[in-house]
Specification:
Layout (H helix, E strand, L loop, with lengths): L9 H12 L15 E6 L7 E8 L12 E7 L10 E5 L6 E6 L13 E7 L5 E5 L14 E5 L5 E5 L12 E4 L3 E8 L16 E12 L7 E17 L3 E3 L4 E3 L5 E5 L4 E5 L13 E5 L6 E6 L5 E5 L4 E6 L4 E7 L14 E6 L6 E5 L4 E5 L1
Antiparallel strand pairs: 1-25, 2-3, 3-4, 4-5, 6-7, 7-8, 8-9, 10-11, 11-12, 12-13, 13-14, 15-16, 16-17, 17-18, 19-20, 20-21, 21-22, 23-24, 24-25
């Protein structure tokens, strides 16, 4: 359970920012232009679900979805049990109003093990929302299920449940190519070979996490049809964890020439998978772009307008900017300075999504269940 936020004085915030936020940069960075971090809204719906993970911006209005609004999925239920949250909320960033977009029962039979909504979310232009589930019966990985991908229509109604031997614990934020009548999704899977954490000490690390490419066909007026699922990367490290449920590859972003980038949390690095859009086999863990430095368990991963990558750290409150062409880290910025955790903001950051205009990004702080705008 997350500790509540401590009130920071202006002086303490300035001290942290001055000592650790802006780092030496030898080229213009996207993060350097962001000066404000504004709370948008609470992410807690009426049923009390908490621990926001997934973040996505609605690309086009359809049904109850409004273009530019932000969808946030909750991983925990009202008792703060991990892998038990079943709600997606929609937040208007202008009025700061929250509404419930979708809700599914925790014991959904068609999803092996039930429902616990993860960071893996995609909102398509055709109005369909797809989100991952990695469920637990008691809030630990000892009772986790295989999970599934849940498909919602534009009214927030559950339309389909996708399961497959190649979908096991869909976990990290998705990279999406949306062509209107078809789409390609990339999602990491962290459910293979991971059991419950031991009574004391750390659970073993196993190198069985994968990244899957999922082909979708979207007929006019019909729901998406699940096509071929291809494992394009495997062998990533994963580990059961009492605090964050599972540690494994979390962020996926599109790269050049059909490649993708993947954040390897346990390896503390970012990898590139070549030809991910067309390959028919696995590239293993791919080619290393960068490791260590400002990275402290990199999680979500998105592309900034300047072509650089942004990731959130799991072990402190920083976002890190990476130039994938030069294979170096460009900048880091403290986006969560909550001293209730040490280091400040540790364990608070998960989902990440660019604003439609590209002048900032949305992120969640799960210690206080809020959506925040960096701009």
């Amino acid at each position: 359970m997350k500790a509540r936020r401590l009130l920071l004085t202006a002086a303490s915030v300035v001290a942290i920012a001055a000592s650790q936020a802006a780092v030496a940069v030898d080229q213009p960075s996207f993060l350097a232009g962001l000066k404000h971090h504004s709370t948008v809204a609470s992410t807690v719906p009426a049923n009390g679900d908490q621990n926001p993970y997934a973040v996505a911006v609605v690309p086009a209005s359809a049904g109850r979805l409004v273009q530019g609004h932000v969808l946030v999925g909750n991983f925990n239920n009202d008792g703060n049990l991990q892998g038990a949250g079943g709600t997606i909320v929609q937040i208007d960033p202008v009025s700061k109003q929250l509404s419930l977009f979708a809700s599914v029962p925790r014991t959904l039979d068609r999803c092996p093990g039930g429902v616990g909504l993860t960071t893996a979310i995609a909102v398509l232009k055709s109005g369909w929302t797809i989100i991952g589930s990695l469920p637990s019966k008691d809030g630990t990985t000892a009772t986790k299920g295989q999970g599934c991908l849940l498909v919602f229509d534009a009214q927030g109604r559950l339309a389909d449940v996708w399961t497959s031997p190649k979908i096991n614990g869909p976990w990290g934020n998705m990279a999406v190519i949306d062509r209107g009548d078809s789409a390609t999704l990339f999602v990491s899977n962290t459910g293979y070979g991971v059991g419950g954490p031991p009574p004391s000490g750390d659970a073993p690390v196993v190198s069985k996490a994968t990244v899957a490419r999922i082909a979708l066909r979207i007929p006019a007026g019909g729901k998406p049809v699940l096509g071929e699922t291809t494992v394009v990367a495997d062998g990533f490290a994963e580990q059961a964890d009492k605090g964050v449920f599972i540690i494994g590859p979390t962020g996926i972003a599109l790269g050049p020439n059909g490649s993708i980038y993947v954040s390897d949390a346990i390896g503390n690095r970012v990898m590139q998978i070549p030809d991910a859009l067309t390959r028919t086999d696995s590239a293993g863990t791919g080619t290393e772009i960068t490791r260590d430095g400002f990275l402290k368990r990199p999680l979500a991963l998105v592309a900034a307008p300047n072509g650089n990558l942004l990731t959130t750290n799991g072990l402190n409150g920083q976002a890190v900017e990476i130039d994938p062409r030069a294979r170096k880290q460009v900048a880091a910025q403290w986006i969560d300075v909550d001293k209730a955790q040490q280091p400040p903001g540790s364990g608070d950051l998960f989902g990440l999504a660019m604003t439609p205009s590209g002048d900032g990004f949305y992120y969640v702080e799960d210690d206080v269940n809020t959506l925040v705008l960096a701009h």
